[in-house]
Amino acid sequence: MIERQIAVALEDAATVIFVVDGQAGPLPVDADIADWLRKKHSDKNIILAVNKCESPTKGLLQVAEFWTLGFTPLAVSAISGRGTGDLLDCVCSGLNLSQVTEEPSSNGIKALAIAIVGRPNVGKSSILNALVGAERTIVSPVSGTTRDAIDTEISSHDGQVYRLIDTAGIRKKAAVATSGSSAESLSVNRTFRAIRRSDVVALVIDAVVCITEQDCRLGERIEREGKGCVIVVNKWDTIPEKDIKTMHYYESDVREKLRVLGWAPILYITAISGQKVDRILQAATNAENERSKRLGTAILNQVVRESVSLRQPPRSKGGKKGRIYYCTQAAVRPPTFVFFVNDAKLFSEDYRRYIEKQLRSNVGYYGTPIRLLWRNRQRPGK
């Protein structure tokens, strides 16, 4: 599997960086890789990077051993950064910049960034491979196979460009700390950055395991970042004895446990067979459209007035009644609404949730979080 994906990557590459361990010296496997590169990819610009050469004096001795591999060795140190400038020069010198042309921007359509996140081994890489139609990432029953956030761009039949970001599985913080793996900690941080630079997040859960505490934490992160979201229930084929009511009961369970994402659509798929995987793209597109939607002030205030007539704002213990003067949409992505009121303290969290629910039921915003800001202001005309 890994060799096949390396071969696919090399076919698209102009330059190959062959990294070896300078402290361990040349190993038999290094010689095998060198022979394979010479036979299969002699047309590529191959750079032999000897890593872990922190010492300027010892580095020369370490590098000298690797001449036996048949390539010109270059001393580098990933930790200290030594030699990385020379490495970059070698990479650039092997590129034929005259043949590099900018790809068309798909008629000016911005790529929709979709981060695929979830706990380890829920099928994130399988989903990416199914969407791309090729084995872009390694799929393994061993959790932690994906370490980095991997970006892949695809286009739909209507010209929409999607940038899919496959991420490392996220375990509980205590489990990551106990493992002592700096690579895993780095992977988790990169996953959080992938969420931050995405437009919509596909939160993948295992159909058998259902919602866990870690899924809830991921949901909180998605909501806090203001990203659109699609909840993807993978491995749906493993649920035994399904009938017409199974999906209804399952959705009720998900909504109960994952209340922070009560606004997110739920999809049921099987990534291995590709069943209904393509629905993720359409659901993500819909979520981003809702996330970017701007509502007219007249329509917005009409919805607010009708909501207030159905349920009056609460009163204080002294009898002071909350009043909403007017509302306006201040931003999109996520949609943000500012309510100008006589006293923001009079509006309880329960009433604010009621107003949000009324907004969603009347004007949509399915698949995206919304922000409601409450500001004190004197009544107009006073």
Model description:
The structure is a single chain. This protein has 382 residues and is an alpha/beta fold. 37% of the residues lie in helices and 19% in strands. It has helices spanning 2-12, 28-40, 56-64, 84-93, 124-132, 173-179, 182-196, 213-225, 246-257, 279-291, 297-310, 349-363, and strands at residues 15-21, 45-51, 73-75, 112-118, 150-155, 161-166, 200-206, 228-234, 266-268, 324-331, 336-341, 371-376. A six-stranded mixed beta sheet has the order 5-6-4-7-8-9, sandwiched between helices. It has a three-stranded parallel beta sheet with strand order 1-2-3, sandwiched between helices.
Mean residue pLDDT: 86
- Proportion of β residues? 15-25%
Helix and strand pattern: HEHEHEHEHEEHHEHEHEHHEEHE
Whole-angstrom Rg: 27 Å
Largest sheet: 6 strands, mixed
Structural class of the helix and strand makeup? alpha/beta
Across the major sheet, the strand order is 5-6-4-7-8-9
Give the assembly state of these chains: single chain
Helices, by number, come to 12
Low-pLDDT residue spans: 100-106, 137-147, 179-184
Question: Distance N terminus to C terminus?
Answer: 73 Å
- Secondary structure: number of strands: 12
- Helix residue percentage: 25-40%
Name the shape in a single word: elongated
